[in-house]
Amino acid sequence: MESTLRENVAGLIGAAPEEIPGDANLVYLGVGSLEMMRLVTKLRRQGIMLDFGELAAEPTLDAWERHLREAVR
């Protein structure tokens, strides 16, 4: 699941998944609020209830992966 998240984010910013450090600020890398909303919507359609506010408050892959693991539980 985390690798899919990383791949989705990489697609948003036009980078290879392995090039994105887990602690990099994704907003600085080009992930805006619209892209975050689209990602949340996509994951919700898959039954994963992520909160946009949590993602926006901590815009790093490490934090998003943590929220994703919590949402899947």
UniProtKB/TrEMBL annotation:
Pfam families: PP-binding. Residues 1-72 form the Carrier domain. InterPro entries: ACP-like_sf (IPR036736), PP-bd_ACP (IPR009081). Gene3D superfamilies: ACP-like. This is Phosphopantetheine-binding protein. The lineage of its organism: Bacteria, Bacillati, Actinomycetota, Actinomycetes, Streptosporangiales.
